[in-house]
Write a structure and sequence with these properties.
The protein is α/β, with parallel strands linked by helices. It has two domains: about 1-155, P-loop containing nucleotide triphosphate hydrolases (Rossmann fold, 3-Layer(aba) Sandwich); about 165-280, no CATH class. About 40% of the residues lie in helices and about 20% in strands. It has helices at about 15-25, 35-45, 70-80, 90-100, 115-130, 145-155, 205-210, 215-240, 255-270, and strands spanning about 1-10, 25-30, 55, 85-90, 135, 165-170, 180-185, 245-250, 275-280. The strands form two sheets. The protein has a five-stranded parallel beta sheet with strand order 2-3-1-4-5, sandwiched between helices. A four-stranded parallel beta sheet has the order 7-8-6-9, with helices on one face. β2 (about 25-30), α2 and β3 (about 55) form a beta-alpha-beta unit. It starts with a strand and ends in a 10-residue tail after the last strand.
Length: about 290
């Protein structure tokens, strides 16, 4: 299990960092009291939880509870628990500017200027910063650039592309998926539904796959769609998109769309993309498909 504790200066980007970890499949918890971290870590490490990646946000907002963080980290290291501390830093000038733009008060500055509150916070976090495994200065990083820096450290090989591609098969008669980014219509392909022997099956069955893929236009469509995805994916990643939903539809969502979606998913996986598949309407057995 990979266990990351995220802390640092208020305004240095912890919220954006936690969102990035969520996009990468980490189980995220924000502002957990430090004394609860060892118990929470033991709970997550149990085999029946199936939790492989955890990210905890801990900062000065915890008030008096935050004072326990240094001792808790020392205790966990003494117990040989594997974890990493990520410290987010930024210059005073940048942090003051961010607070002015957000019109929010610093957590330690209810009755004082932001600059004074920042100095108090730095003194409080000095020892924590020295214990950090990774320190990222976000002073001159955009949200996109911050995510890129984080990805260099915390993304596994399976996720090296930085984007999750969801391939969804569906039936137009049941509606287009509302969250789809790209929608492709394969109703131009010959329909196995009109073959009585194939009608009870779906695109997960070999008989239907052989029928759908037995036509030249099926292979031409797959080739052109893959070319488009190869072109688009790097640009989506460059723009910081964490998930791409590609919807492939036929009439009922059981035969043609399922077959083509399976092929696209397999090809993406072979090319090293982080891809998952969902056959939304495969069990809705009504009308032509």
């Amino acid at each position: 299990m990979r266990f990351v504790i995220i802390t640092g200066l208020s305004g240095a980007g912890k919220s954006h960092t936690l969102r990035a970890f969520e996009d990468w499949g980490y189980f995220c918890v924000d502002n957990l009291p430090p004394k609860l971290i060892p118990t929470f870590a033991e709970l997550c490490s149990r085999s029946d939880t199936n939790i492989e990646k955890v990210a905890l946000g801990v900062d000065i907002r915890g008030g008096v509870f935050f004072n326990d963080l240094e001792d808790v980290l020392k205790e966990m290291r003494a117990r040989k628990f594997k974890f990493e501390v990520l410290f987010l830093d930024a210059s005073d000038e940048v942090l003051i500017k961010r607070y002015k733009e957000s019109r929010r008060k610093h957590p330690m500055g209810a009755d004082s200027r932001t600059s004074v509150a920042l100095n108090k916070e730095k003194d409080k976090l000095h020892s924590i910063k020295e214990m950090a495994d990774n320190i990222i200065d976000t002073s001159h990083l955009s949200v996109k650039e911050l995510k890129e820096e984080l990805s260099k450290i915390y993304l596994n090989n399976m996720e090296s592309t930085g984007i999750l591609i969801n391939i969804v098969s569906f039936g137009f008669k049941h509606g287009i998926p509302l969250d789809a980014d790209l929608v492709f219509d394969v109703r131009f392909l010959p329909n196995p539904y009109y073959d009585e022997k194939l009608r009870p099956f779906n695109g997960n069955h070999k008989e239907v796959q052989e029928y759908v893929l037995g036509y030249k236009q099926s292979h031409e469509f797959i080739e052109k769609l893959m070319d488009m995805l190869r072109f688009l994916i790097p640009y989506y990643i460059e723009e910081g998109k964490s998930q791409l939903i590609v919807a492939i539809g036929c009439t009922g969502g059981q035969h043609r769309s399922v077959t083509i979606a399976n092929v696209i998913h397999e090809l993406l996986q072979k090319e090293g993309n982080w891809s998952v598949i969902d056959h939304r309407d495969i069990h809705k057995n009504t009308g032509a498909h």
